[in-house]
Design brief:
Length: 366
């Protein structure tokens, strides 16, 4: 089993003066990161991704539970592995009027890294040509890439990127995916967090989804996608009721979608021409037809029963210490085209839970 990043019964409760504490992470058992692979750490806004990452980097103390990085306790001895971990958490600070190259040279000097490494990392993130432009003149995508270059300076074995696709346009996100794959190709373990499940699934080998600070599912991308249900066909037609009745009578169960004139057929996309033929034979002509593939977003909706992310857990809602996490699979009333909820049976890769670690002293908000 990977020992790169492990969490055991991790709990993080933020105290708030005069208000109920926020239970950001609740009893999380996780194993993240494999050399040469990309692990997507996914969940809606407020689900606890950044909190978990900050615990893993020793930036905040867990309320209870244990986090280890390369076998070292992240809370007490992160320094022992700091050279092996590169990370970007939220917006990294750079000097706006210095060039990209100068910013990296300063970072390298502070970390005692040879200046020549700056040229190597500029090359990796494809900023070599623009290295002498000021940071302020960079696009958001270039700023993100420069930040990644900074995190790569020490040639880490583990790279943690918190929301690297945030704010990027589709082209920028695509570039980011290529870069992430390239870096993983150098043998590094990458953990990339995102609330944009659809954007990140294309780059992941492994996936962990959390929701309300609780583990929803973890496993290989293929394992997790299985929870989305089979591929199906989505079609558009004026006389939707007649089309649904005809297909269903012909052994191809069809159901309306919330969008007017749209319906879906519970058959794999290879049967598209059959769907078309049966309808045409009955004088029904489609104006649109496409395959809808199993997506992480659909898997998430099926596993949580959510139609949209709910608000974060307050302490009163949280699992009792040491108790089971709240079930993530409440059945949805759901839109008519929601696939039935599937219990989260993907084999979790998390280790068996050890006895809870003694609580750390409470901290205030940070
Ligand atoms: N310093 C803090 N003090 C109080 N509450 C906090 C603090 N930091 C985070 N929280 C709360 O903890 C919960 C989890 O937040 P966190 O930032 O970890 O989520 P996230 O998954 O990273 O969200 P996003 O996708 O928006 O970045 C949220 O309800 C958030 O409001
Ligand atoms: Mg975050």
């Amino acid at each position: 089993m990977s020992d790169i990043l492990q969490m055991q019964r991790l709990v993080k409760r933020y105290q708030r003066r005069g208000r109920d504490p926020v239970m950001a992470v609740s009893d999380l058992d996780l194993v993240l990161g494999r050399a040469g692979s990309v692990h997507g750490f996914l969940g809606p806004n407020g689900s606890g991704k950044t909190t978990t990452i900050r615990c893993a980097l020793g930036l905040i103390r867990p309320t209870t539970g244990a986090v280890s990085v390369f076998g070292h306790d992240a809370t007490t001895s992160f320094h022992a592995v700091a050279d092996r971990v590169g990370a970007i958490v939220e917006n990294p600070k750079m000097f706006p009027h210095f060039t990209g190259r100068k910013n990296l040279q300063l970072l390298a000097r502070m970390a005692g890294i040879d200046k020549r490494r700056v040229e190597e990392v500029l090359e990796v993130v494809d900023l070599h040509e623009r290295g002498d432009d000021t940071f302020t003149s960079y696009s958001l995508g270039m700023k993100q890439r420069l930040a990644i270059a900074g995190a790569l300076l020490k040639d880490p074995d583990l790279l943690i990127l918190d929301e690297p696709a945030n704010g990027l346009d589709p082209a920028g996100i695509a570039e980011m995916r290529v870069l992430i794959r390239e870096i993983a190709g150098q043998g590094k373990a990458i953990v990339v967090s995102s609330h944009q499940l659809g954007e990140i699934e294309q780059v992941c080998d492994d996936v962990t989804i959390i929701h309300n600070g609780v583990l929803v599912v973890t496993g290989t991308l293929a394992d997790v996608q299985r929870h989305a249900g089979p591929d199906r066909i989505v079609a558009t037609i004026d006389d939707r009721d007649a089309a649904i009745a005809t297909l269903t009578a012909n052994g191809m169960p069809a159901f309306p979608r919330p969008t007017a004139r749209e319906f879906f057929v519970e058959v794999p996309s290879e049967r598209s021409s059959e769907v078309n033929r049966v309808l045409a034979t009955n004088g029904l002509y489609l104006s649109g037809l496409r395959a809808e593939n199993a997506s992480l977003e659909q898997a998430f909706l099926n596993l949580t029963g959510a139609s949209q992310p709910p608000p974060p857990l307050l302490e009163a809602d949280a699992a009792p210490p040491g108790g089971a996490a709240p079930p993530p699979t409440a059945p949805p009333p759901g839109p008519p085209d929601a696939a039935p909820p599937v219990p989260p049976t993907a084999p979790p890769v998390a280790p068996p839970a050890p006895p809870a670690a003694p609580p750390h002293p409470q901290e205030g908000d940070r």
